[in-house]
Structure formats: structure tokens, C-alpha cells
Amino acid sequence: MDIAELYSCHYKRLYHICFSMTRDAYLAEDIVQETFIKAMKKAETIIDEEKAGAWLSVIARRTALDMIRREKRKAAVPMEQDTLESFCLITKQDVEQEVESGLAAEEIKSAIRQLAMNYQEVLLLKVDGGLKEQEIANLLNLKPSTVKTRIFRARKQMRALTGLGA
Questions:
Q1: Taking a C-beta distance cutoff of 8 angstroms, is the pair 22, 64 a contact?
Q2: Which CATH number is 3-75 given?
Q3: Tens digits of per-residue pLDDT, 38-82?
């Protein structure tokens, strides 16, 4: 499999996917480049070359989600220790509540990992990616109604898995 050929065939579509997720042209280009670097390292694992486009799309989406998370972490502004301490005193955060919400978040992530892949994908794009149903539909080449159905069913399964009622 020729990486240059893959690049010329799939660059535009991968760029579109990445741009729709990030809304940043430069970041989208970086993600596409990173996608092809990852693909080069694993090119020998492709058995069916007709599925290379789908394989690259999955790599691009996952790389985009990773980059989005990394960018969100970078956006956090570090505070001076005294400012941070006074902020905590003012807000009087309840440590117990933080621990409970952290445990709940872990339980939810664990439940998401138990869902079928198509449900995981739409739910992660909705929750972690912050995408709207129409954007998810465009990204995954699905009908908006299919996305809504998958989100509904994923949430229903999540409630069953986490025991939060039906």
C-alpha cells in the first residue's frame, strides 16, 4: 500500500472530518498529518485495501478527540497558590461531593465502554466532543434520525448499566 496514494485519495475527506470536529484549520491539518503518521506505522496491518478510507477516518476521529482534549487542558490558566486558596475558601467546595461526582464519572465511563461500538461512538462525540446531532451525522455519514436513535438507545442502555432508573 502506497502512503502517498492514500494521502492524495483521502486527505480532503480526513481534513473535512477533522475541521468539523475542531473548527480550526491549522489544528485540522495537524490532526490529518498525525493520522497519516500513525497510518504509516501500522500500514502493514491493513488486509483489505478497500477499507483503508474507513480505517483512516477512524484514526482521524480518535486523533481529533485526543487533540481536542489536549487543547482543552492547555487552555486552563494556572493560578497563584494564594489566589487558588482564597478561591477555595470563598466557594467552600465540598470534598465529599467532588469524590462522589468523580466516582459517578468513572461509573459512567465504564458503562460507556460496555456499549456497542456504534453507540459508544455517537455518545462520545456528543458528550466528550460536544458535537450536535447534525454534526455527528455529517461526521459519521449517517442520517440525523439514526444518530438520535443511537443516542437514545445508548442512554437507555447506560441507565440500565448504571442502575439510574429507566
A1: yes
A2: 1.10.1740.10
A3: 888 887 777 677 788 888 888 899 999 988 888 777 766 555 555
